[in-house]
Amino acid sequence: MTVADPRPLTGEPVSLDLLNTLWMHEGVRQDLLTGVDGLGTWLASTGLDGRFAADGATLKNVLSAREALAGVVAGPDDAHAVARLDAVLDHGRIRATLTAEGPGERPEFADPAWGAAWTAARDYLDLVRAAPDRIRSCAHESCILHFFDTSRNGTRRWCSMAGCGNRAKASRHYARTRDH
Known about the structure:
By secondary structure, this protein is α+β, with helices and mostly antiparallel strands. It is 45% helix and 17% strand. It contains 6 helices and 6 strands. It is globular. The model has no long low-confidence stretch (mean pLDDT 91).
């Protein structure tokens, strides 16, 4: 059963969307991936639900990928974190194909339970290849969400202007008016 997605930020690239299955709500850390129902919700929100099963084996592997991704996002030069991400990537590969539409690629997995985890790890490689400096954590001190900055000038600071950005502006305004 897929439940409504309760997360405050969705729609990021799949690797960052996986990291965003952990978030803060009223000072309490929330985790979408506490069971296969939450996994089903995440798979559906990323469009992976038709390709990968929401079962215990997939959940275990997706949690491994989330931990590995958290490590490399926090410390891109951390050899242990890089090795953990590489271990996830070892479970899949890209096969070159030729189709009626022309050259193509398709992922292959020895064990399909690694498919969603591998897809998220592979997506992170694509982000690093495209613009590693645009992989960001929200600047609000109590937020743990991540995003890929697609703004024209690359200065996005908040996961959401309506949420964290507004709270920061309100805090600054309150501090200014309180001092006068």
